[in-house]
Amino acid sequence: MSTFAPQLETFLRALAIDRGHLGLVVVNKDPKKLSLPGLTEGAVVVNLDAKSDVEAALAVLIDCAKQGEWMRLNLAGSTFPGRLYNQLRNISTMGHIQAGQVGPAGDVIELRWPKESKIIVVATQATIDKIQVPTFLHLFGPVVREE
Amino acid sequence: MFRSPERQQMKREPIVRFSRPETVTDSDTGEKKVIEKKYVAVAGVELEVYEGKEGSIFKDEDFADFSIDEASLDLLKRTAIAVKLNQPLLLEGETDIGKSKAFEYLAHMVNRRVYRLSVAGQTDVSEFVGKYVPNTEGTQKTFERILRNRQKLTQRSKEILDNVFEDKNRDSLNEDECKEIAQLEGLEFGEKVQWVWQDGLIVQAMTHGNKRGAWLYLDELGAAEPQIIVKLNRIFENQRRLEIAENGNRLVEGGGDFRIFASTNPPEYAGRLPFAPDFLRRFVYQKIGSLTPNQVQERLAFVWEGQKTDAAKLLKDTGVVESEPLSLKENPKLSKAIRECLGELFSQLRTMVKDGAIGRDQRQQFRYEMTDLFRIGDYLTAFGGDDPEKMLKEAVKFYFAGKLGADADRTKVMTAFDAVFKAKATGKKIQEARAPREKEVEPPGLSVARSEAERAIAELAAAELAAMEGKFSSESGELTIRVRELAAQLDANINHRFSEQGRLETVTIKPPELPPGLTQEHLDTVREALSGGKGFEERVLPTLDDLRNLDETYVGAMYPETQSEADKTRGLVSYRPSWWKDNADKALSASGQTFGAVYLRSIRKELEALGGSLVQLDTATKPSYTDGKQQYGTKEGTDPAADPLLSLFKEAFGSDANRFSHSWDDLETKLLPLAKRKIAEALKAKGLSKVDFEVILVPATLDNLEMTFNHPESSSTNTWEWTSTTLMDDSGNDTGRRLVVGYSGSGGAGYVDYVARGDSLGSLGARLAVVWKK
Description:
The structure holds two protein chains of two kinds.
Chain A: H1 5-16, E1 22-27, E2 44-48, H2 54-67, E3 71-75, H3 82-94, E4 96-102, E5 107-112, E6 119-124, H4 125-130, E7 143-145
Parallel strand pairs in A: 1-6, 1-7, 2-3, 3-6
Antiparallel strand pairs in A: 4-5
Chain B: H1 5-10, E1 15-25, E2 32-42, E3 45-48, H2 70-85, E4 89-92, H3 99-109, E5 114-118, H4 126-129, E6 130-134, H5 137-148, H6 155-166, H7 175-184, E7 195-199, H8 201-211, E8 215-219, H9 226-237, E9 241-244, E10 250-253, E11 259-264, H10 277-280, E12 284-287, H11 293-305, H12 311-318, H13 332-354, H14 370-383, H15 388-399, H16 407-423, H17 426-441, H18 446-468, H19 477-490, E13 494-498, E14 504-509, H20 520-531, E15 537-540, H21 552-558, H22 565-570, H23 595-610, E16 614-617, H24 646-653, H25 664-685, E17 693-697, H26 700-710, E18 720-728, E19 734-742, E20 752-756, E21 764-765, E22 768-772
Parallel strand pairs in B: 4-11, 4-12, 5-8, 8-11, 18-21
Antiparallel strand pairs in B: 1-2, 2-3, 6-7, 9-10, 13-14, 15-16, 16-22, 17-22, 18-19, 19-20
Helix pairs in contact in B: 2-3, 2-12, 13-16, 13-17, 14-15, 19-21, 19-26, 20-25, 24-25
């Protein structure tokens, strides 16, 4: 990790000013174990695997937009929920969230993604390879890879 | 074509925002009223700006880094055409050429809400159409958690889910199925929990804004799973209606403003399969090329340095769409000529695709379909009125060549078109079909102006050619031409077009756009009341924007600092005398401004109040002056019958009077009220609606432009004319001086000087204007 830390710092600097708001960290082992310098305290962490509650993850995303917080998304498993991908795509292209069927009333939530909020997706290459979204990597601005 | 100032502006600027009054019928009361509607034109394609609250959620600054360059303007134009014609558009192009952003930018400009759906990675489309959920948050989460753990479901629950998945007409569980699964999985919801339907984003888009509809954007369509495409097909089968089987066969109708767009990466991308032709035919499929190295640099220059792409170059590359509608139904001969051409071309192109002559190396296969021909018909109906031949070619390029990725293939399509067009003599037939049509639709009253207009156009053409040959003394030939374009805006009822070589190609006469409540009958009545039906041509007084806010570019072209010998004798172009740069008299500027600055300030003030107004202009020829007995109407001034306003002047000033030797005050107090009263009485006698108007002497700007460019014969006389333009001091107060224009000895009709309002000079005449305020 010691050799990775400087690269992570560069990555975070780049992400902080990125227009697309999303960055990807490719790690060699469990994403949850990655330590992100200077950020781990503030970022809201979501662990996403096949059994995760997508609605809950979406709720966190919406909350991050409202609060102007950073979000860290640790990926595991082989699927990436389309509903969540749709919002990440909205954020990366338009800086905006537009989610339908939110809550029991089925509301449409429209929110501007704050410039100060960023999303870090952390995953192994094996996980990324399993994701059945051909354009998944188009979401990200800065990408850093653990050597 | 110079149909209106905004259309003129569209020839210079890729994006033009404007408004115009339109008559609408109140749906509740049935009453007609005139409202000001806002528009945005993208490369000539006019789209109305929605003014409701349910529009764009973005702000202008969200698009501060959106570059209007060659590639983005092309995307904007294609999308705008699809919006205008209500045709579903599918753009295929590389990632990052800006498809999504261009689409969003267009939507923002016209204040439309966008519903965005990225279909990549979706495994079901219940988010698109809708689904049943329990009506409390806790039970909803419980039910969804159960559905996620598919392996733990009972066999019957799995069967229910599989049935829905395999049914191409279904996207989610119906209420009974939800209840059955809940029961099978042992959920006890109790009586208080009810199952409610939640509309998906597509249904939301169809019914957005009190059922008006929004714009639906399906992003990354090609990255969708095949089974999702099958499901989406149901939505595209009928663009405006969606029957939701799982919601009690509920029928959802898309509102009138509902539009569908999709984008996709090329099938060469990993994981992307080509679309089936049957799916593709539901869209106007357009293949967009990659950004060239120059286009990449162009975009970076804007984002990094704020450097805009030259507007003229942009429009030259992208082309401007003419917006005049065309009724094929009412023009059967024209329609037949186009049908013959397209029928043959269609057959040839289908064969070329089948034989691999075009599109062979393209992974996304397609067919040319009858729907393409129907869409070409829509295109011509919307845009073909001014120049059907040109629009036909553009439509073929858009709908047929646009499907092809390779430049060589697109060239083959257009070559085939040119060959068929020539073989079928389509151009000749179109011209023959159009000739009588223009006569039929000629509005009443304009026939009177026809002969004068044609003469004016002929002279304008001659002057235009002379300008092209560099005979004008402008500091820049290009600037002179720009000013001439501005002058042409005044020609609201004369449309003309020049070839690239400067030859006059077509001349048509069309009605100007009228202010609210004003009809052609009002205009004709003015002519009758003042001059027995003669003279008084319609013009639009330019706005400050039209004249570049009288900046140095405009002034430099309109009033060059030197004047050639040729121009002196022709009297076609004015110039700035040396004293233009001198300090003005203290009565005009206590702060020591120059005469030039004082003039421009005064002109500006008047245009702020009246710019953009429709003006009926007295265009009688100004005579040469010898002893004060001359009459307007001919250059020699010897024929009193030639002046249509002579009787009005005699009525105001006595039987010996003519247009010369009156002070501005006398004209203001005697002539103008008389003219206004005559018009008001005539309008009242005909029972025409009351519309605000004023009778004034001609504004200096209008006189300068009009006489310089459209009536140069009035430039070569040794006479002046009063104008309505008041010379203002530094504080904006009337100095008691009025601008006077003309006099060939000092530079022609564009020349400006001033005279005290109470003074009268023998060689100082007057010209009237009726202003219908904007």
